């Protein structure tokens, strides 16, 4: 029974929030009538302990005194005016018998929401009160009752995934046995109509692999800074590979030979992804989030929403194909991880890259062009349903201090993921590499194009 | 202070609260005002056809009424004779004629003026009334042959608007005007029996599982929810929602709420949804040509969708569009598109699929008619009455509603001052069967009455106020057609 006290204490006192009886009933999965009593209990006890520590609003139901003019104002102040106007019109300019209102008296029931300080005044306006209950509790008095709307707005978003036909009984909502709902539920509009199906699937598998090793972190917030720290130690581009989303479609040089089979599998998956059982997704989507760091959360959400309307078919063939594809993918993933690890190890020492550069520089003078074309070629793009996702190899400029204290600017190949949001980079602009230390070594490159001199640094 | 009053003002009890079951609703909509879809909908026709067919269809009933009343009518030994054509009336002869009323009002908007005049200054704001105080208004009666001006002291007592079909008795005076002594309207058409259509369907073997007529609950009627993009003025809508779900208020109210078997939303659910911006909206908007995507605000429709989707698991809903809703502007307004309601869609019929059962969430036309719990219900979003209001003196909306029923016209002023689809083969706005309940939404205040027809027809008229302004929900008892009001309000001192 103290569960509700805890909940209310945390939300009202600590988080300074408004808690309505509906919010409480949803949070604790209790009947809304019981929630009203809980609010009352909490209100009594807390205010007994310390006067006016909790503020309440009440909902009063009953019939009002007929002679009492409605004193309610606020939102309806304007409307009161217009009502008055029409009333006077009625009495002055309408001689017609007011048939309806005249011969039969229409019962009017009033449901009024009031703050606790106004409660007595409101009660006096009523001829007959059928019920009073606490509508909400809040830490202090509220100026505008309208902020109570937030409670319901929150309920509609927070518990949107609950099936109302199943779960609402416990809240005391009136049940209707005749309700007709189409079995095939459409997704809410937030879900993008075309979702790259293959990519998230892999994300999940990757996530599963990793979470086996790592303790699952409960909150994304917690893992965020930590990841950043890890990233700092390595070069910036080493952080990129763990991004799970685009892994499927893109390969570093070393795994390039795998391109054709991989494409196949991803295609396979695209066609079968619809058959994926829901359970898996919901189970794995949670651990997936910590890993995605800077990958947009939206992807995970899209994935979940899409699950809602997937048709659950799994024939034997499909299952086999799936299993095979999965195996392939896992192996490739593993390989890729290894490769990337090597690459990461390579990245920091400046010499190795420099050597690489030198090797490449021994080629003819039109080097930048050839390199560009290579970069273009290397960009692997998955186009799924009109959406372009993938990774491409770009040259990144990197500045560092060498042993002599000079600033060295280097170009290094790096992988970056891109999506349709970004325009396709036609040519990675060859960046001028000029710094006093690198001049001797890289003079050739600098002389290649005079435009480099004017290039933006 | 009763015991039930304190039931929630006590510490949590262990006793279980009952789970309430909602009263079922028998629902059978008619497709009277559905327009043809797609390429079958044409706009090339002349509006004159509407008046022609209207007169052709209503002439007979008016003649019957008039003949009964005036057959042996004598003034100074002269018997009233029927004259077939307006232009065939001879001066000094006592006779009666049938035709369409046309109101010539200087203040009435005239499309020809709009075209011929060049407006260099901003037009004046729309008028509340077209009537001009100094008697410049003229009432005319026209048929296929021509027009004759009506006059006489009898006329100002009558409620007349452009488009209604009447029979007038009198003589032509020296000025060539028709001096009216008496006036007859078609009056209420025949009224079907309660459960009439239901029984015929049962006998037809369509609906075998329901032989008996179950005890009906109540229908909740609301109009003018007026949801807009602004936050912080929708708490009353929340209270309405909680009341209808049976979560708010005390056990008595919850039991009462469980007896509500259907919600009818009579227009203007969204306050600024119309595709044609109002004069005020245009003035407020800064000049920008073409469509401005930044001006679009999805919040109101989303909020309405969530609101209705929250109600739907518990309560079937019939949703009529209104003047400010994102539907077509000309009457009959067609159902709001299901794409506006991503959450509610699951409860509606699959578009384009014909089904025996109506949708749980029924987006209907405006005006709309159908059978609810056996009663024939005619409902409109309110534009029709608002437009009639402009033609006549006075404020009594119920009287206007009554007149419209007696004229047998849902939208008499269409197509003159009310936008309308150009019907060609028939005027769909003619009421062929008398409803039991006539609901008009978005009226300035709540009002109701029961009117009776010459053949014992009884019609419950309900003028539904705007919820946004009044916070009033109307409950109609579907057994005895009694009406009650539930008023939601916030108590806030200024």
Automatic annotation (TrEMBL), chain A:
Cellular compartment(s): Nucleus
Q: Which GO terms describe its cellular component?
A: delta DNA polymerase complex
Q: Where is the composition biased (Basic residues)?
A: 386-399
| Acidic residues: bias regions | 292-307
Q: Which residues cross the membrane?
A: none
* Single Gene Ontology MF annotation: DNA-directed DNA polymerase activity
InterPro entries registered for this protein in UniProt: POLD3, POLD3_sf
Q: Where is the composition biased (Polar residues)?
A: 62-76
User: What keywords is this UniProt entry annotated with?
Assistant: DNA replication, Nucleus
Q: Which Pfam families did the record assign?
A: CDC27 (PF09507)
Q: What PANTHER family does the record tag this protein with?
A: DNA POLYMERASE DELTA SUBUNIT 3
**Name this protein carries in UniProt:** DNA polymerase delta subunit 3
Recorded source organism is Viridothelium virens (Speckled blister lichen)
Q: State the taxonomy lineage.
A: Eukaryota, Fungi, Dikarya, Ascomycota, Pezizomycotina
UniProtKB/TrEMBL annotation, chain B:
The record's top EC class is: transferase
Which keywords does this Swiss-Prot/TrEMBL entry list?
DNA replication, DNA-directed DNA polymerase, Nucleotidyltransferase, Nucleus, Transferase
DNA polymerase delta subunit OB-fold domain: residues covered: 46-182
Q: Does the keyword Nucleus apply?
A: yes
- Chief location of this protein within or outside the cell: nucleus
Q: Does the keyword Ion transport apply?
A: no
Q: Which GO terms describe its cellular component?
A: delta DNA polymerase complex
The entry's protein name is: DNA-directed DNA polymerase
Q: Which organism is it from?
A: Viridothelium virens (Speckled blister lichen)
